[in-house]
Write a structure and sequence with these properties.
alpha/beta; Rossmann fold; seven-stranded parallel β-sheet; five-stranded parallel β-sheet; 13 helices; 12 strands; binds glyoxylic acid; D-isomer_DH_NAD-bd; NAD; D-isomer_DH_CS1; Glyoxylate reductase; oxidoreductase
């Protein structure tokens, strides 16, 4: 019997075609499997699951998957999957490291530049018919050249951001679970900060690239926002719950920080209403990896892990499996 794969939403067609060369493939309707019960009901029929980061792959979903061999997330972050529960059931879990680092880093720079130079406010000003000629005091913003960038989470994405920021003349400070080796730190002239508070105090721009874990939930809270300077910009392209969204909204409304560029939210697709109306804040709908090239690479990496496992390859030959 043909093995069966559930792809929970339409993704780049070439990826679906690749899976169809080997398996029976079902593609869910967008949004259907954001519901845990829908996944529990569907999963017993499938040998492999290719979920989106918006699908809750909980212990109950995994336990219902009696034929399930692999869950290959269409994302690098995998906080939507109960990895321990999967490993207890001998189900492999894969993510997509590496392929989206450049896309995410480019997008992070785009947010930094856009918030720093107030692009969206400036466009609205012009569209609203308020452009009354060159203004020596109009739209004064932050130059990245010579500014200090604080990076929280110095994995592949954090390092890709650091390289781009160096090219723009920024100084690099970073916080990470562990300090990086000198051969990574030295070319970036990156200075390690053991305390997030220290980074928040010194950075002109603070950008988040850590995974969402218990330790990083609300890492950026009222205390850290109060330590940041009134000109400091916060960028989040990691996961929404790393930031206390209500506290961020108030900090912006009260002018406690300089601005924010936010691509990820605590309860997607909801966005805190006070954040939507906050000044000096650019909000985007979780699109940091959304280039055609990268979304295809993400899909192919997930698909190849499924093909490998269902065709009996040795797990050690599949580079993107998460270790038990
Ligand atoms: C996107 O947010 C990802 O984790 O790939
Ligand atoms: C993502 O690829 C990371 O490890 O930072």
């Amino acid at each position: 019997m043909n093995k069966r794969v559930l792809v929970t939403e339409p993704i780049i067609p070439s990826v679906i075609d690749t899976l169809k060369e080997h398996f029976e493939v079902e593609v869910g309707e967008r949004g259907t499997y954001n519901d845990e019960q829908a996944l529990i009901d569907a999963i017993p029929e499938y040998d492999a699951l290719l979920p989106m980061l918006s699908n809750p792959v909980t212990v109950d979903v995994i336990n219902a998957g009696k034929n399930l061999k692999i869950i290959a997330n269409h994302a690098v972050g995998y906080n939507n999957i109960d990895v321990e529960a999967a490993h207890r059931q001998n189900v492999h879990v894969a993510n997509t490291p590496g392929v989206l680092s450049d896309s995410c880093a480019e997008f992070t720079m785009a947010l930094m530049l856009a918030v720093g130079r107030r692009l969206y406010e400036a466009q609205r000003h012009l569209q609203d018919g308020n452009f009354d000629g060159w203004d020596p005091l109009g739209f004064l913003g932050m130059e990245l050249q010579g500014s200090r960038l604080g990076i929280i989470g110095m994995g592949r994405i954090g390092q890709a951001v650091a390289r781009r920021a160096r090219a723009l003349g920024m100084e690099i400070l970073y916080h990470n679970r562990s300090r990086l080796a000198a051969d990574i730190e030295d070319p970036l002239s990156a200075e390690y900060c053991e305390e997030v508070a220290d980074l928040a105090r010194r950075a002109d721009v603070l950008t988040l690239h850590c995974p969402l874990t218990e330790e990083t939930t609300h890492l950026i809270d009222n205390r850290i926002l109060s330590i940041m300077g009134e000109d400091t910009i916060l960028i989040n392209t990691a996961r929404g719950p790393v930031v206390d969204e209500a506290a961020l909204a108030e900090a912006l409304h009260e002018g406690k920080i300089g601005g924010a560029g936010i691509d990820v939210f605590e309860k997607e697709p909801e966005v805190h209403p006070r954040l939507k109306t906050a000044p000096r804040c650019l909000l985007t709908p979780h699109i940091a990896s959304a280039s055609h090239k990268t979304r295809e690479a993400i899909g192919m990496l997930a698909a190849n892990a499924i093909i490998g496992i269902l065709q009996g390859a040795s797990p050690s030959d599949i580079p993107n499996l998460i270790e038990p």
